[in-house]
Design brief:
The structure is a homodimer of 358-residue chains. Chain A is α+β, with helices and mostly antiparallel strands. Chain A is built from twelve helices and eleven strands. Chain A is globular. In chain A, 57% of the residues are buried.
């Protein structure tokens, strides 16, 4: 928080001040903040044109910037507590957008029970960039690492499905047309559902030139701002050996967990949770491997001893969170995606990367 | 630390791993880090074309990115301990630059006794951006705020001079020519000094088409990577009522301190510390008001009770740090810069700001 920046931070300070409730935030009026105690800390930036599209609504961009960080805290079994916000704001964007950004970011902070500790803002001729550092309170003595998986562990996903955000991005970016997406669905039913919801969702969830489509809107909304379930943190804190969030595609992230733990991770393809439209798409000619390598899922991948299985499932309660046992940890290395017969399914493209440097 | 990012962070992880010495950093191999205890925390980003020039050496850019954050910690009386690093790296920059960046950033971390906790990297088509979050251990129970100045306090600067970085930027950017800068100096002496040092400094400290000039080189180096003196933190922790670092220009930052404290701050123009070339420039037709409004100084501005004056000066020791009593806190509001007669000097341009939004 340099002074030059703190100065500009005035613009949003006033909007955020009600959320800077911790004494250590000093009302966002100082050059530094104070924190105390044990914290899990994580930092993630999202960049226009890389992690979100230039035309994405500024409100969902704000939410995404916070949530990709909250996702890391949850996956470590920590309760979100506080955040620092650095905004690199394009000169060409209208200043009014800052107010919308602040309102959305502030609303999300409140939703997750977090306070704003401070931040920094600068103008730029380049793309919009939002960098967040988030602090969480660990719910257990031990904070599970990627490296803590044990042979024999079950592999779990909790907090949502795989592939919905990828499908949403394909639709929103125009990479997939509605006729491919809608293959195999009951159009009368889909139309009825969509008509019953039309006008109740923001304009940006309707594709240009097309009637509102409820399924497409839902998938696009998961891409724009992932649904993060903070309740997952408690499950992780109580049961996880290894844990991480899935952001780069299930297969790629599972491979990282396996590599860090020095084990092999088996994924049973039929056990992976998909949303209804994603599953239909895959059963109607779509390649399900794109769903498990697509990225932007922001659910928690964790391993736990098989002996904890019953208690884990009982803890969750009926329907509160989507919990899926998708495989197991074995001796060896790498990720194997297997079919019902246990035969390996080859995965051509195990996850996207934003490469650094030329 | 999303996975997609942690992935790319591999590139520099290997270079940094020796510096990630705290257990909480988890060897930079996890999605989050752990911290414990009381911390002062600050975050600052520097942006190509705004806080540094596109042609600035990547090594000094790395140092500047860390030091502007360390400066905030020092000014709060905290000892630097750890940092998170977020790199938004232009696609057009050669990947080899990353190694130079990492070596310089790592060297600076070691210099300040800090460890790397983690980070995030993304490629971009826009400008290079480095966002750092820094953690410091407060050296006293109380952490001085901007708002803590009391009427009757002395106003101090510690850790360096004012205006050197501004002069360095003018020379480096070509906004000021050497003949204006060199007005009034003994050119034979200057040439002798420069010749005795030529070849011992990096090429980027020589202006294109000109012979190496020792004074210009020194001023440019303070702009490129400010000299930060961590020893200042102890003085702040022991004596400061209010404190902040000077980064936006002495007058602008003094005005912020005065406003936050609800007081008036008097600056005695003749008591402000300048470097020898800056003072000569001001006495040879330069406008000294540009030195005190220019920015990028990164020294500590603090207030302390007049009763502590003798002890404060004795604590410092002879010559260890440049300490200057530049004025006093009075009832009222705003900043008054006064001459030897106590008459106010009008200040036309009280500090630069990187405005946000259009």
């Amino acid at each position: 928080m340099t002074n030059e920046s703190a100065d500009e931070f005035d613009t949003i300070r006033k909007l955020f001040a009600p959320l800077a409730t911790s004494a250590g935030a000093r009302g966002l009026a100082d050059d530094a903040a104070l924190i105390e105690g044990r914290h899990v800390v994580t930092t993630d930036a999202i960049v226009e044109g890389v992690h979100f599209l230039k035309g994405d609504p500024i409100a969902t961009v704000a939410m995404k910037a916070l949530r990709v960080n909250v996702s890391d805290l949850i996956a470590k079994g920590a309760q979100p507590r506080a955040a620092l916000l650095t905004l690199i704001w394009p000169n060409e964007r209208p200043a009014e957008d800052i107010e919308v950004f602040a309102a959305a970011f502030g609303g999300d902070l409140a939703h997750f029970g977090m306070t704003l500790l401070g931040g920094d803002t600068t103008s730029t001729d380049g793309p919009l960039i939002i960098s967040v550092t988030a602090f969480g309170e660990p719910l257990a003595e031990r904070t599970p690492a990627r490296a803590d998986a044990k042979v024999g562990d079950d592999v779990w996903l909790v907090g949502g499905e795989i592939g919905s955000a990828w499908l949403g991005l394909q639709l929103r970016s125009g990479a997939m047309q509605m006729d491919e997406f809608a293959r195999g669905r009951d159009e009368d039913e889909a139309r009825a559902t969509s008509e019953s919801l039309a006008g109740q969702t923001p304009d940006y969830l309707t594709l240009p030139g097309l009637p509102f489509d409820a399924e497409a809107a839902w998938l696009m909304s998961t891409y724009l701002a992932p649904f993060i379930r903070p309740e997952c943190a408690d499950l992780v804190a109580r049961f996880a050996n290894a844990s991480m969030d899935v952001s780069d595609g299930l297969v790629a992230d599972a491979a990282k967990l396996a590599a860090a733990s020095g084990v092999s991770l088996r994924i049973e393809a039929t056990a992976v949770p998909f949303s209804i439209p994603a599953e239909r798409w895959a059963f109607s000619g779509g390649d399900f491997r794109k769903l498990i390598t697509g990225g932007d899922d922001y659910v928690v991948l964790f391993t736990a001893p098989a002996s904890a299985r019953a208690e884990l499932e009982a803890t969750l309660g009926a329907g509160a969170l989507r919990l899926s046992r998708i495989g197991a940890i074995e001796a060896g290395e790498g990720v194997r995606v297997v079919d019902l017969q246990g035969d390996a399914i080859p995965i051509p493209n195990a996850g996207f990367r934003h490469k650094l440097g030329r």
